[in-house]
Amino acid sequence: MEYPMYIVLNQVKFHAYHGVGEQERVVWNEFTIDLKLQAGFSRALLTDRVEDTVSYAGIYQVLKEEMATPSRLLEHVCGRILRRFFTEFPAVSRITIRLTKRNPPMGADLYSAGVEITLSREEWSQLN
User: N vs C: which end of the chain shows fewer Cβ within 10 Å?
Assistant: First the structure.
């Protein structure tokens, strides 16, 4: 039996070139990702083996690679990240990702704006 277990990465910072405006894809902005992965890693509680869990380093590598590819929409960036996680990490069953852009160019006095998505592997497969 698998119990609810989560791997979390909080406030992962990136400089990237995402945005609807052309200038946003020329001048970087600061982005933050908060990530919560539900994954089956109960064996790792007993074995102390990285093979029995999902590697933080592997998770970070996916985030780094996808954040390096410019997109107009943060939703699209999240979609690419979700696709990679569900493809490359079979132990992951559900993902919550929050991607925010610091001080977006919209004439508002706010710290950041962004998107948050929670999807299970099954829900993701229904979107494709």
Answer: N
Helix runs in 20-120, H state only: 42-47, 56-67, 74-88
Cα gap 67→80, rounded to integer Å: 9
> pTM of the full predicted structure?
0.93
Count the helix, strand and coil residues of the chain and give each as a percent rounded to the nearest 5: 35, 35, 30
Please give the torsion angle defined by the CA atoms of residues 24, 27, 30 and 36, in that order, rounded to the nearest 10 degrees: 60
Could you give the CA distance from residue 29 to residue 10 in angstroms, rounded to a whole number?
Answer: 18
Q: Which of 3, 2, 5, 8 is nearest to 96 (CA)?
A: 8
Tens of pLDDT along 6-41? Answer: 999 999 999 999 999 888 888 899 999 999 999 999
Phi, psi dihedral angles at 77 (to 5 degrees)? -60, -45
Work out the angle at residue 6's Cα, subtended by the Cα atoms of residues 39 and 64, and round it to the nearest 5 degrees: 85
